[in-house]
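To whoever picks this up:

The parser on our side crashed when reading a file containing two proteins. I've narrowed it down to the boundary between the first structure block and the second sequence. Both blocks are reproduced below exactly, byte for byte. First block:
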Amino acid sequence: MLPLQLVDSILLNYNIGQIMLLGFILTTVGALPLKSQQVIGLNTILFGVIFVLTPKSLMPSFYLFLGLTLIVIGPIVYVTADS
């Protein structure tokens, strides 16, 4: 495990929106080898909901719009997936 001081020193330079965006990108790239469009769609919906539910005081407001966009795009990706 990483020491808490190392994690804290990294996180102090960024806001929660940037950290969640990095998490979204990493989980999407991690799901690509599965070749499942449904998993990508569910991941997109999940992160959209997380972006929308995160308090506005913790991150800039444009992450709210990113969350709303992901909530709209996620179901489209999920429904258009081949079973």
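<<boundary where parser fails>>
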Amino acid sequence: MMSKQIRHLVWLAQRPHINVYVIPFRHGAYPAGGPFSFYGFRLAPPIVHVGDRHASTFLELGAGTSQYQAAIGALTAKALNFAESAGLMTRIAADHERS
């Protein structure tokens, strides 16, 4: 099942509005404070969903979203580019299919 999920991510990432980046473990800890979802829109300001299993909230405009835009920049800087990410995911899927 995992190989199908990984291959589906590679397929989705070929769409022009979807970016998938992989940060290998060798690149160190993620420079973000925890899980969040960043939603950018063409005709509206971005919003951020921050949450865990205990609470969640949406942040809008200004400082509420700017620190998360900075975190995305830091994460992207550590991540492999799309071709490298797709290649790594494809190799991992193949490894799962062999086992």
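After patching the parser it read the second block fine. The chain has a mean pLDDT of 87. Strands lie at 36-39, 47-51, 56-60.
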